[in-house]
Write a structure and sequence with these properties.
The longest helix is centred in the C-terminal third of the chain and has 24 residues. The mean pLDDT is 94. The chain is globular, with a radius of gyration of 16 Å. It is built from 6 helices and 7 strands, in the order αβαβαβαββαββα. By secondary structure, it is an alpha/beta fold. The chain has 2 domains: 98 residues, Rossmann fold (3-Layer(aba) Sandwich), CATH 3.40.50.170; 75 residues, Rossmann fold. It starts with a helix and ends with a helix. Helices cover 35% and strands 22% of the residues.
């Protein structure tokens, strides 16, 4: 049984968002939750990079934020201690590029979205435009995004939901990335609600 299956979420549930970049996923989730105040709210944003644009975006959205290094298991424990201190029950990775060590008590309550159909073009070193470039170079006819539970291996945990995106003739990395992100904006909220409601 996963931690999410055994955990009784309170509503609105407190979500923690971890990011390394500009925070587009954060913005999407914050906009969605504005319409769903009964379901959840983002209680804190943590980045492993002080200069991450996502921290400024969180500040603009009125969400508490902080930068914390994530280079070891002990760093991961410190991150989860901060999340627990503010009452976070579910952690969502939104472009978090470090391997986060998940304590056993948190397995099944940490989600990630990857911009391909796992297991294709996933694992260490596959992120962002690197994934879309690999899809095009492989000549794949379709790609998409996958939401999965996070364990201690890159892009490895149980799949929760996925969205399929066709690769169109003439696609570039940029055009493909844009369409995959559109799918992410729909699939990630759906997966989060599925986990919170134990569906």
């Amino acid at each position: 049984m996963s931690a999410s299956a055994s955990h009784a979420f309170s509503f609105p549930a407190k979500i923690g968002v971890l990011l390394s970049g500009g925070g587009r996923t954060l913005e999407n989730l914050a906009g969605w939750l504005e319409e769903r105040p009964d379901l959840a709210r983002i209680a804190i944003v943590i980045s492993d990079r002080k200069e991450a644009g996502g921290l400024a975006r969180a500040e603009r959205l009125g969400i508490p934020q902080r930068a914390m290094r994530c280079r070891s298991q002990s760093d991961g424990e410190k991150i989860f201690a901060v999340l627990e201190a503010v009452g976070v029950e579910l952690v969502v990775l939104g472009g978090f590029l470090r391997l986060l060590h998940i304590p056993e008590r948190w397995l099944g309550r940490v989600l990630n979205i990857h911009p391909s159909l796992i297991p294709a073009h996933s694992g260490m070193g596959y992120y962002g435009d690197r994934v879309h470039r690999a899809v095009l170079e492989a000549g794949d006819s379709e790609t998409g995004c996958t939401v999965h539970f996070v364990d201690n291996i890159y892009d490895h945990g149980e799949v929760i939901d996925r969205g399929v995106v066709p690769v169109e003739p003439g696609d570039t990395v940029e055009t493909l990335a844009a369409r995959v992100f559109e799918a992410e904006c729909e699939i990630y909220p759906r997966a989060i609600e599925k986990v919170l409601r134990k569906e």
